[in-house]
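Key result, reporting period 2: structure in, sequence out.
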């Protein structure tokens, strides 16, 4: 497959990356610490919006699979989502002057609207990626391009916030506490999302008529329940959901850790930036590992690395064994980078593993429903991340973490509880996810044998449906 086509496909995921970075890193912090909304309200909003939005993902996949439009099954939805997505994202970060409860309602409203608009693009776009490639290793490379642009979008949010919108000033030495920086951040990145979505749709226009392998898709309930009867899918999705719950907790509290636990001041925003840089560097590296080893091996190795880098530093700090002084910030940046390397493996290999699982389902049922499978993945990821965000908000309330707090004024026991919750607490969940993922059964040899069988069946069906030769 031409690299330009893979890049055109991947660039659409800038929109997902921007949403992902902003929602996980700034929404809770902005509304709770900057605007003074109680943490439990914001956490409830993050969790509820994601779970409500997630319910629509399998439905969106089913609708996309059934679409018969002259633009294809995926492109009509991608194009329709662009403008609403940018507008809703901009409004989320531009609330009027309201009280805490009303601000919480504003956040919930535009969180839901933004994520619904993103679903209309994201699920068909994921399914389109499966249709681009059928080769076992080429699928990993396609997913690597997608993941690269996803985290490039998140990196742009973090770096843009640090350098432009939330830069330190005389009034706000900790720039992330400046309320005036968030509305232009929302407007700017909302516009980038619009152009990324439309650019991907135009760039992949040449493959807008993928050949469906089935003539009819079953009813909604039957179609959605089908993946749950697939053993590799059940193992895979359980493992990945546990990972995303852990990551949701960690990402929602990462700025808190940098600001209050590590006391980095304005440099706190650099931690998620180095995590994202690690993902960007790790994406092609893990694609190479998955080409030379089993996808499961890459998937589990990355999870183990991620769990280690999240769990150990807070424990070492509380034990007095973590580097201090001038070495403190570089060490934390290096740890964040390595954690990003590990997280990349789960995302790159995981998406490619799911693409292979769609072939297992086709072999078992004769149904080609990429949209439903990736809709289920999106559902699980959003629901799990929502639970992580909800857990983060509830944890802040449980440990009596104050709103609009000034670094250095919080009780030591509260700061220690924050470090344990965001570090080892999230790391334990990742280890459980790793143990579940160990049971994933599909190997490269099994998948290639399966694809050969599907190819023979497809050719047989084509020959059976061909007209009889003249004179027969």
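The corresponding designed sequence is given below.
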């Amino acid at each position: 497959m031409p690299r330009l086509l893979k890049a055109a496909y991947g660039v659409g995921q800038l929109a997902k990356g921007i949403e992902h970075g902003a929602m996980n890193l700034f929404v809770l912090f902005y509304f709770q610490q900057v605007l003074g909304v109680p943490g439990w309200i914001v956490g409830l909003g993050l969790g509820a919006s994601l779970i409500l939005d997630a319910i629509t993902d399998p439905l969106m996949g089913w609708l996309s699979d059934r679409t018969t439009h002259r633009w294809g099954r995926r492109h009509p939805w991608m194009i329709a989502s662009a403008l609403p997505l940018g507008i809703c994202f901009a409004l989320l970060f531009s609330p009027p002057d309201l009280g805490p409860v009303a601000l919480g309602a504003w956040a919930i409203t535009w969180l839901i609207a933004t994520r619904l608009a993103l679903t209309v693009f994201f699920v068909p776009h994921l399914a389109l990626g499966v249709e681009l490639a059928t080769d076992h290793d080429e699928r990993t490379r396609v997913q690597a391009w997608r993941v690269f642009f996803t985290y490039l979008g998140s990196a742009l949010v973090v770096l843009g916030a640090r350098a432009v919108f939330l830069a330190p000033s005389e009034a706000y030495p900790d720039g992330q506490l400046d309320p005036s920086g968030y509305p232009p951040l929302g407007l700017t990145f909302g516009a980038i999302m619009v152009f990324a979505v439309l650019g991907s749709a135009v760039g992949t226009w040449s493959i807008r008529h993928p050949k469906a392998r089935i003539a009819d898709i079953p009813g909604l309930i039957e179609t959605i329940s089908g993946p749950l009867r697939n053993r590799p899918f059940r193992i895979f999705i359980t493992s990945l959901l546990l990972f995303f719950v852990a990551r949701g907790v960690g990402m929602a509290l990462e700025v808190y850790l940098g600001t209050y636990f590590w006391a980095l001041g304005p440099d706190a925003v650099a931690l998620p930036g180095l995590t994202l840089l690690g993902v960007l560097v790790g994406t092609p590296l893990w694609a190479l590992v998955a080409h030379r080893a089993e996808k499961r091996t890459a998937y589990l190795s990355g999870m183990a690395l991620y769990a280690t880098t999240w769990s150990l530093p807070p424990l070492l700090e509380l034990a007095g064994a973590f580097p201090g002084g001038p070495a403190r910030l570089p060490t934390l940046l290096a740890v964040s980078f390595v954690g990003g390397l590990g997280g990349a493996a789960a995302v790159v290999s995981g998406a490619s593993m799911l693409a292979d699982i769609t072939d297992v389902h086709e072999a078992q049922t004769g149904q080609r429903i990429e949209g439903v499978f990736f809709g289920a993945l999106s559902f699980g990821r959003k629901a799990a991340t929502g639970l992580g965000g909800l857990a983060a908000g509830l944890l802040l309330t449980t440990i009596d973490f104050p709103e609009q707090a000034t670094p250095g004024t919080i009780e030591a026991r509260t700061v220690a509880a924050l470090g344990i919750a965001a570090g080892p607490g999230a790391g334990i969940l990742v280890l459980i996810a790793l143990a579940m993922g160990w049971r994933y059964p599909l190997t490269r040899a099994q998948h290639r044998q399966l694809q050969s069988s599907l190819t023979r069946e497809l050719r047989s069906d084509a020959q059976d449906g061909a007209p009889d030769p003249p004179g027969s």
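The chain is about 75% helix and 0% strand. The mean pLDDT is 82. This case is discussed further under Risks and Mitigation.
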